[in-house]
Amino acid sequence: MGYHWKSCPSSIRVFIFNLQKEITEIINGDFVGFYLHGSLAMGGFNPNSSDIDALVVTNNSMTVEVKRKLAKFILNCSNSPFPVEISFLNKEQLKSWQHPYPFDFHYSEFWRKRYEDDLLRGTYKFINEDINTDTDLAAHITVTNHRGICVEGDPIDEVFPSVPRSDYTSSILGDFQDCLENIEAEPIYCSLNLIRVFWYLKKGVISSKQEAGNWGLETLPQEFRITIRKVVDCYSNEKGCTNKFEKDELLLLKNYISDNVQKLLC
C-alpha cells in the first residue's frame, strides 16, 4: 500500500514542510498557498518511485530573479531524497480558465539539466521572463480540486477555477498516447496510467495509479489479471520491482484498453 499525506512517515512530512517553508521565504510575502496533488494526496505514494507533486500559488507574477532563486533551491532539494514536480501560478492567471494553462515557473527532473546549464553559464534560455503554458495543468488542477491537499494557505475551493471535463480529458489523453507508445520501456507507469484513463472515461472516477490498478484487478477480463497483478505489486513495493514483463502481455493489455477507450471517445 502507498502512503497518504495524512498518514505518511515523518520523513516525508518534514521534506514537504521544509520545501514549503523555503519556497515561502524565496517568494518573500507573495505566498497564497502550497497544494499537493498526485500520489501523496490520493494515497498511493511510494518513497522509492513517486514524485512530490505540488502547485504553488502567488499573488503576483514572478520576477526572473525569483525564478532563478527557486531553480537553484529546487535543484538542490529534488531527489534528496524525493523527486519534485512543481508548478507556480499567480492569482491573475487563476481568475479565468484557458487551455493550455499559463504558469510562471515549473520544475521537474526532466528540466534539471536545462536549469543547471542556465545557472552555471549565466544564461536566460529557460529561466527568463517568458510566460509559458502547460496542457498538463488541466489535469493537475482537476486533481487538486477533487483530491488535493492544502498544506498551507488559502482553501483549494477559493483558489482554483473549475476545469471543463473536455479540457481534463484532452490533458490526460496526451499522456495516454505517450503510454501507448512507451509501455514496453515503462511497463509500470504506462500500464497503470492507461487503466486510470480508461476508468475515468468509463466511470468518471479521478484516481491514483494505485487505485486504478486495484480497479483493473477487480474489473478487467481475467486474461489480464496476472499482468495487472505484477504491475500493481511492482508499483507498491518499496523494495523495488523484480517482476519481468513479456512484450506480448503488455501489447495485449495496451490493445484492449486502447480499443475500449476509442469506443468511449466516439
UniProtKB/TrEMBL annotation:
Pfam families in alphabetical order: AadA_C (PF13427), NTP_transf_2 (PF01909)
Cross-referenced InterPro entries: AadA/Aad9, AadA_C, NT_sf, Polymerase_NTP_transf_dom
Keywords assigned by UniProt, alphabetized: Antibiotic resistance, ATP-binding, Nucleotide-binding, Nucleotidyltransferase, Transferase
GO MF annotation list: aminoglycoside 3''-adenylyltransferase activity
Domain Polymerase nucleotidyl transferase residues, every copy: 33-97
Superkingdom of the source species: Bacteria
Adenylyltransferase AadA C-terminal domain ranges (all copies): 158-250
Catalysis: reaction(s): spectinomycin + ATP = 9-O-adenylylspectinomycin + diphosphate
Descriptive protein name: Spectinomycin 9-adenylyltransferase
